[in-house]
Hints:
Radius of gyration: 32 Å
Largest sheet: 7 strands, mixed
Low-confidence stretches: 5-14
Oligomer: single chain
Amino acid sequence: MNSFSATTDATTDRAQIWSVDEHLEDILAAVGALDPIDLQLLDAQGCVLVEEVTVPLSLPPFDNSSMDGYAVRVADIAGASEEFPAVLTVIGDVAAGQAEQPTVGPGEAARIMTGAPLPPGAEAVVPVEWTDGGLGAGPVTTMTAHSAAPEGASGEVRVHRPAEARAHVRAQGSDVQAGDRALSVGTVLGPPQIALLAAIGRGTVRVCPRPRVVVVSTGTELVQPGEQLAPGQIYDSNSFALTAAARDAGAIAYRVGAVADDAETLRSTIEDQLIRADLIVTTGGVSVGAYDVVKEALTGIGDPEDPEEATGIGAGSGVEFRKLAMQPGKPQGFGSIGPDHTPLLALPGNPVSSYVSFELFVRPAIRALMGLPEDAVHRPKARATLTADKALTSPSGKRQFLRGVYDAEAGEVAPVGGAGSHLIAALAQADSLIVVPEDMTSVEPGAEVDVVLLG
């Protein structure tokens, strides 16, 4: 279940021009963290922890060897050297996972493996490289496999160097002690955190789940990659870009094949997807053309004057279509649909407009649904010196986002490609967005600019 609460007003002046910040604030005010659930460890990867985890047992849970070698008493090897080695009787093996260990007495040693418990009576571990390995010659570099030479667990071993007490011994609780805090609320669970949870015996953990995002592209002209293009057709790149971007943001993303420019087909498709969606993203069909199917299909649904009459996707509070003071990405849609008030973000169809809109609006919504703190919801920003052959121009009253290549070491950013919203090849080269504020129509080379870092 999502935690969307609609804030759109059906009486809003449709001619209003929204700023980028106003639109984003409206989205984030309506989208909250998903309800916590208990997940198996691997299913919780990438999720935000909503419980404090304490350590039920110390790590390591017992003193154990950090080397393959011999467990010994310190006094028995004092003054040992290659010329005058300490000769000890080998009383057996201690392997990792072995429940019972031999007791090491005076003049004795136990052959021990990495991770194995330090046996009773032993005070230190000498690496096998400091011994003759029980072969009666000079120093060895490795142990012979037990299966190949079981006699290595008995006989004598010559130790060529002394060792201090606790040498090469991992002490019980030297990692964490029972009762210590293992992980705090708000931790994003990556591989190291999953490893720690497993090490302390946790099979499940309570988290804010990764949101399920459904991406729907629209356009009769769209063809799936790998199929043959007919005249007037293009390949559907938006749904692939946005699905990949949603996964990169941390979501579980599902891609729906392109829907033709038919309002009823689109409404049916979206309604079918509600069962698996915490957020729906559409691309295309939000402008002022005669074939802008998303606007046609979703305008007027969820009429608050007749809430009991609304069914299917119309059971939500509806979707509002807006004009934003930005380039690219002027036309946008936002609202909720369906009985669970599933949030829907409608993005423009030009590839660059679609991707920039995702970065500015959809990615923060996904991160908010994940329960991440505010500083992790937004992409990081930097100030950089513009390097360009000529001044950048920007329309008055609009915040422009230009693709750029950022050099962190030099503190510089260079534009890549033009300002056209269809220039997808340049987008593949960009790692940042250069921001030109609404009150600027020109930015000269050498000027300081804000940069949104994309990766």
